[in-house]
Amino acid sequence: MAQSGKRGTFEHPLVDTHAHLDEVQDVGAALERSRAAGVAVVVAVGSDFGSNQKALELAQEFPRGVYPALGLHPGQMGEMGRDGVQRTLEQIEASLPGAVALGEVGLDYHKRVRASADKEWQQAVLRRLLELARRHDKPALVHSRYAWADALALALQSGLDKAVFHWFTGPSSVLRAVIEAGYYISATPAVEYHEEHRRAVSRVPLERLLLETDSPVSYAQANSPERYQAQPADVARVLRAVATLRGLPEDAVAWETTANACRLFGLQPLGSSQG
Ligand SMILES: [Zn+2]
To answer: How far apart are CA 151 and CA 153, in angstroms?
Structure first.
C-alpha cells in the first residue's frame, strides 16, 4: 500500500473500522480525502441485504482500501420483516467467508426500535448471527444501545472470542466485562463530547481500542451549534480527541489502534515504511 510521509503529528496509517459506505455519496472522492488524511483502510459495514451487497461491491471496486463486513442491524428488522431477515441471514451465511467481519449486528432497546422489533426477536436473530461469526471465525461488530449487558451476554454465550462493542456508551461494569472477555470497543467522533463514551474510551486498555466514524452519521461539535456529517477522513479527528483524552502522543494511539485493527480483521500490517 502506497504511504505518504508524515501526516500532522502521526506517521502511522489509520483504519476506519466502521463506516456505512453504502450511504456515503461519491465513495471514490471520500476515499481520496480519507487517504489524504492518513486513513488507509475503511471497513464497510452492512445493515441489511442491499447494504451488504453494496459493501461487497465496494470492496471489489477499491481493493486494499475497502474491506467488507456483513450485517443485519436491529434497527432495520422491523422494515425487513421476517422474510427479509431470513433472506439476509442466508446471504450472510453464504458470503461471510469473503468478509473481514460480521457487522453491523446487535441489540437496540430504544423504544422506537422495540416497537417494530421486540427484544425476544432481536435476541433470537443476534444468536443466529453470532453463531455464524463463531463458525467462520470472524469478529462481530456489535451495536448495543441501551442493551449493553444483554449484547455482551449473548456474545459470551455464543463462544465468540472476537467482538467489538461499537461506539460503546454503557456502564463501567459492562466495560470491565467486555475487557475481561478479550473484546474491544471502538471510538467515534462522539469522543469529543459524549460523557459516557469519553469515560469508556479513557478507561479501556489501548490494546483493546479501535477508531471509527460510523459515517455518514452526523455529530455535534464543541463550541458550535452546527452538526457535521462524518466521513472516513474524520478518523484523524477521532485520533486527535483520543490522544488528548488519554494524554498520549497521536502517533502512539495511531500505531496501537491500527495494529489492533490489523490483528482483529486479519489485514496486512499497515506500517508507514511499507511500499
Ligand atoms: Zn453503524
So the answer is: 5
pLDDT (tens digit, 9 = 90+) per residue, 3-36? Answer: 444 455 577 899 999 999 999 999 999 999 999 9
CA of 70 to the centre of ligand 1 (A): 12
Identify whether the C-beta of residue 15 lies closer than 8 Å to the C-beta of residue 259.
no
Total Cβ atoms within 10 A of residue 116: 15
Tally of structural domains, the chain:
1
CA of 10 to the centre of ligand 1 (A): 26
In angstroms, the CA 115 to CA 117 distance is 6
Low-confidence ranges of the chain (pLDDT < 50): 1-6, 272-275
CATH number of the domain residue 253 falls in = 3.20.20.140
Strand partners, 166: 186
Quote the ligand 1 centre to 73 CA distance (angstroms): 8
